Structures are given as C-alpha cells and as structure tokens.
Amino acid sequence: MSWIDALLLGILEGLTEFLPVSSTGHLILLGSWLGHEDEAAKTLEVVIQLGAVMAVVVYYRNRLLDLGRGVLARDPASLRFVMALGIAFMPAAGLGYLLHKKIKALLFGPMPVAVALIVGGVVMIAMERLQRKRGQEGLTRLQDVTPKRALIIGIAQAFALWPGASRSMSSILGGQLVGLSTAAAAEFSFLLAIPTLGAATVFDLVKNGQTLLDAPGGMLNLGVGLVVSFIVALLVISGFLRYLKRFGLTPFGWYRIALGVLVLALASR
C-alpha cells in the first residue's frame, strides 16, 4: 500500500464516518478495488477511524469539558448522560469483543457489504416515512436519553458490527425509534462514537498493530490516514447536522441502495 492509497482511505473515512452510509463498508470496497485485502489493510481500515474520533472530540470540546466538570462536581444531569453513553456503548463492545475475528474473516468483503447497504437503505427510508406519518419532530434534548432509551440505541448500534450497516445509521435509527428527533439522535450518535470507535480502534491496534507497522510503509500509511481522516471528518460534522435538519435520512437511503446494487452487479460479472 502506498501513502497515496492511505490518503484516499483517509479522505473516504472522514467523509463517510458520520454519514449513515457505512465508512467501514466504503473502506472495504475501496481497499478491494485498490487490491489491498491482507490483514494489514484490514487493520488500517479499522484503526483509521481514530482520526474521526479525534474530530468529534475537537468539535464537541466545550460540551465535553462541561460534561467532565459536571461529573467531577457530581452534577446529576452530567452523571445521567455519562451513564447513558456507557449503557449505549456496552452491546456493541461486548459483541465486538466476542465476534471480532469472525467478523473480519467472514464479513470484510464486497458482497456482505453490498447486502448490508441495501437492507440498511430500505430500513432508513421506511423509518423516515414513519417519522413523517407521526408528524412529530421528536425529543430534541440529549438529556432526554434515559438509560432505557440508551440501551435500545446501543442494541441498534450493535447491528453495525456487520460492515456496511453503518454505526451512524444504526444509532440514529435507534434514537428515532425511542422518540428522539433526527438531529438529536445524530448528535448522540456522534458522542457515542468516542467510546465505541475509540475502543474498537485501540483493541484492533493492540491485537494487530504490529502486522500493520511491519508492512512496507506501515507507519507512514497510518499517520497519513489518521491525519487526513481527522481533518475531513471535522469539516463534515457540522455540515451533516445542517443537512439532516433540512432533508433527513432518505437521500442517504437511496444512495445506499444504489451503491449496494452496483456492487452486487459488478461482483456477479
């Protein structure tokens, strides 16, 4: 893998991590197209997400600092929100730990990604239509995420362990399911990315980091991918929130279906 390949992966990761289109799925498809399907490439496709995590930390730095001060002061609202994040984090963390090897062995390929893209797109469009039918904007405050709602969001996020399903899509749909507005669900999804993606990248780096670093240009590729994904993701976050408030999830659903069908058509040739 050249540093240019790592640059392309970093751009794609930053563009897609917080959009409900599956960054991992897109990275697998791009890696396959570039001819990188070894263990080092698969590890880079996971670890590169750390750049996007740092973008969330920087974007929400003031809120995170306030949250940290609230926790130290034992503010009930801050403690409840941290508890909600912890509860939502646990299902994906537990299943990811147990199924990590099988997921990478069986699902890191174009066909599983295509299936997940199509199914996820259909579900997104159906959920948006249901939301419009209800005629309610939903709860708009992150403080409304109770432990029970957080657990449901966490269970929904766990479906994103299947590459192509999208962590962002799954957690946003979970938020909508428990009554959050699309924008509030997206914000909770962004903050939930910090423990979820942070744990996933550190876990994969500890287990397979040496394989990545031993590959030709491994350290350079990792550095390029992380820096580029951080910069691009930071630019994407605020624009995505504005877009969601105006257009919702439906356009992303149709994009997912179209991409999934294209991948299946190319794979069947």
UniProtKB/TrEMBL annotation:
<keyword id="KW-0812">Transmembrane</keyword>
<keyword id="KW-0573">Peptidoglycan synthesis</keyword>
<dbReference type="Pfam" id="PF02673">
    <property type="entry name" value="BacA"/>
</dbReference>
<dbReference type="GO" id="GO:0008360">
    <property type="term" value="P:regulation of cell shape"/>
</dbReference>
<keyword id="KW-0961">Cell wall biogenesis/degradation</keyword>
<feature type="transmembrane region" description="Helical">
    <location>
        <begin position="247"/>
        <end position="267"/>
    </location>
</feature>
<protein>
    <recommendedName>
        <fullName>Undecaprenyl-diphosphatase</fullName>
        <ecNumber>3.6.1.27</ecNumber>
    </recommendedName>
</protein>
<feature type="transmembrane region" description="Helical">
    <location>
        <begin position="218"/>
        <end position="241"/>
    </location>
</feature>
<comment type="similarity">
    <text>Belongs to the UppP family.</text>
</comment>
<keyword id="KW-1003">Cell membrane</keyword>
<feature type="transmembrane region" description="Helical">
    <location>
        <begin position="185"/>
        <end position="206"/>
    </location>
</feature>
<feature type="transmembrane region" description="Helical">
    <location>
        <begin position="40"/>
        <end position="60"/>
    </location>
</feature>
<feature type="transmembrane region" description="Helical">
    <location>
        <begin position="81"/>
        <end position="99"/>
    </location>
</feature>
<dbReference type="GO" id="GO:0071555">
    <property type="term" value="P:cell wall organization"/>
</dbReference>
<dbReference type="GO" id="GO:0009252">
    <property type="term" value="P:peptidoglycan biosynthetic process"/>
</dbReference>
<keyword id="KW-1133">Transmembrane helix</keyword>
<dbReference type="GO" id="GO:0005886">
    <property type="term" value="C:plasma membrane"/>
</dbReference>
<keyword id="KW-0046">Antibiotic resistance</keyword>
<keyword id="KW-0378">Hydrolase</keyword>
<dbReference type="GO" id="GO:0050380">
    <property type="term" value="F:undecaprenyl-diphosphatase activity"/>
</dbReference>
<feature type="transmembrane region" description="Helical">
    <location>
        <begin position="105"/>
        <end position="127"/>
    </location>
</feature>
<dbReference type="GO" id="GO:0046677">
    <property type="term" value="P:response to antibiotic"/>
</dbReference>
<dbReference type="InterPro" id="IPR003824">
    <property type="entry name" value="UppP"/>
</dbReference>
<keyword id="KW-0133">Cell shape</keyword>
<keyword id="KW-0472">Membrane</keyword>
<comment type="function">
    <text>Catalyzes the dephosphorylation of undecaprenyl diphosphate (UPP). Confers resistance to bacitracin.</text>
</comment>
